[in-house]
């Protein structure tokens, strides 16, 4: 009887422990289809694969430019796939350039064009995301609150809603340093004042009355897309990415992080934004062209 009682206790403990150890609350855990407690192991694995991929790409004498088409990191399988093509292929670069030329003449909307290493072909990807539009009033008041990458910002009527990119500093004409946030140049409007529009727990409406400042430098065309948001209002910029849906990492620090470019196709890529919150996917190309509403 005692043995049966011990077996029951072990079974109950296993049932209680399983939802915790196998939970997929983190967005990266869902991307890789692993438990939350394995995320750090997979990040270390991915970093090791990036280092190995970098070493291989330095060995030019072993890579035939006519047959080597690229590599793809697979953290879930713990390997790197190196793709080759026939020695007499149709020049995929020529095809890509022809598609770029046609796209420049036709001005498509929300279309990304790039070479997919896995498919060994040119991909035309349609983005179904539509611009956000709302209408309400904002009451200004003096208060200092944190400004995080991924939070939203808008004009006083909320006709325009965009997401903050990343925190930075720049030198003024007087030689002093000022805080700025880098974002999309598509959100620029002449002499427009912007206000913080944070996102929080689902179903909870947050106050949007905190003044940020103006965007005094921007570029929103095909070659580059950036805007410099000058911070002059009652907000305090923080070098962190908003990840509020995470139980363990509600803020991800960006200060003093690894500055080595992540140019390895197949690695994970995450973004934080007002409409999307935090989402993750895989890097599919380092050479894509995206056509937007503001392209000429």
Automatic annotation (TrEMBL):
- Keywords per UniProt: Signal
From which domain of life does this come?
Eukaryota
Full protein name: Peptidase S1 domain-containing protein
Query: May I ask which residue range the UniProt record assigns to the signal sequence?
Result: 1-23
Q: State the species of origin.
A: Gigaspora rosea
Q: Does the keyword Signal apply?
A: yes
